[in-house]
Amino acid sequence: MLKTATIGCRGAARAVAAMILAAGSVYATPSIAFETEETVKAKINLAGRQRMLSQRMAKTACMVFNQADRAAQEEALKKAYTLFTRTHFALRFGDPELRLMPEKSSAVLRFLEAVQKEWAPYNAAMKPVTKGKEIKQTQLVTIAQTNIPVLATMNKAVGRMERTYGAKAGIRDDARAINYAGAQRMLSQRMAKEYCLIAAGIAPDENRFALAQSIALFDKRQRMLMNGDANAKVPVPSDPTVVEALAASMKAWQSLQEMLSAVAGGVAPTDASLEAVSSQADLLLKRAHAAVQAMEHAS
Q1: Is the overall model pTM greater than 0.85, yes or no?
Q2: What pLDDT was estimated at residue 135?
Q3: Nearest to residue 194, comparing CAs of 137, 261, 288?
Q4: DSSP state of 267
């Protein structure tokens, strides 16, 4: 197990934790009577954020296990858990502060019910960790196993929302772009989680393979979002704020990619590299989140 090496990622973890909490409340409204283009975009954004939070919880738990900037990671874990559980409920039953109406689509509800089923064992593994209990390796193995089905089913739910509500609001291309951009947030945390699990000695070969796949997918999707893709029906971004935000996230990605690729290729993680990856992944998350927000609020 790796020991603590303090290189200043505490501030990054706290900044990202504050960012993901604030994202749901900045545009609060007292009530929502019906779905609009704005609420549809918010729904896809927030549902997509659940994918990221599923990975952020596992990533921070692994960092705590590895004693990597433990206090900041514990704080980030608790905030991610609180936000996931609140949004999980709100997506089904509504939450005016999050601009979410109660879900009425039977197709979307079926997917959200599937998420609830997969969330139960993951929640059972995560809840003690949020109360400050020591993480044992067997528990981290359970977390590593149970977070994947939550991510997979949540991804299907987001895809169903994108198709259902994107069509109804007449914003299919925008909805698809928000979905893909939102998945980049998730990948920032999934890659850091896979890196950390390798450092923890948990299924290192399997996680190296998964990390290589995550790296390739993030890079492909980032270029697709920046340049458009006619085959994937992703438009070329035209809003200057979106273009600028995507460029900023690409810059953060290039700083992280080399570190991740080395370990995916067989290099052993070190104390310093683990904290550096955690810090840089949180910066990438912040930049990717800014891109999603820009897309949501673009005219």
Answers
A1: yes
A2: 92
A3: 261
A4: P
What stretches of the chain show up as alpha helix (H) in DSSP? 10-22, 37-65, 70-93, 106-130, 137-169, 172-199, 204-227, 240-264, 271-297
Instruction: Dump pLDDT digits (tens) for 70-108.
Output: 889 999 999 999 999 999 999 999 999 998 999 999 999
Distance in angstroms (rounded) separating the CA atoms of residues 58 and 189:
9
Q: What is the pLDDT of residue 16?
A: 62
Mean pLDDT of 273-287: 96
Ramachandran region, residue 100 (left: φ > 0; alpha: ψ -120 to 50; beta: rest): beta
**In contact, 296 and 42? CB cutoff 8 Å:** yes
- Quick one: residue 24, left, alpha or beta (phi over 0 = left, psi -120 to 50 = alpha)? alpha
Between the CA atoms of 57, 275, 71 and 188, what dihedral angle is there, to the nearest 10 degrees? -20
